[in-house]
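Subject: Protein record for review, amino acid sequence with backbone structure tokens
Why sent: The fold of this protein is of interest and is recorded here as tokens.
Notation: Tokens come from a learned vocabulary of local backbone shapes, not from coordinates.
Attached in line: The record itself begins immediately under this heading.
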Amino acid sequence: MQTTLTQGHILALIFLTAIGYALATAGIKLTSDGATGPAPLLAIAAGFLIATVAEVILLRSADLSTTYLLIVAAETLLVLAFALSLGDTLGLRQMLGGMAVIAGMVLLTH
């Protein structure tokens, strides 16, 4: 089923999908670090649900190749921000490598 979305709706859905995946990743990270209780598992479930619904709506009117690259770039930035907020550190080599990957994704989408 093909639907028509505005550019603004497409960008919003890309970021909503990325936020969903990042939320699930945060829940997975917290669980792997030994967090207990329902919060991390709810974050995983809610994150994947948000990402799935947003991505299904998005893919009804956008190309998979371009859309997926933009979702991965946005998710990467969100997960990186979360990791840094937890105290993870990045060296110069890791930062340059990450920037190269994101720059490559941007080039592929244009």
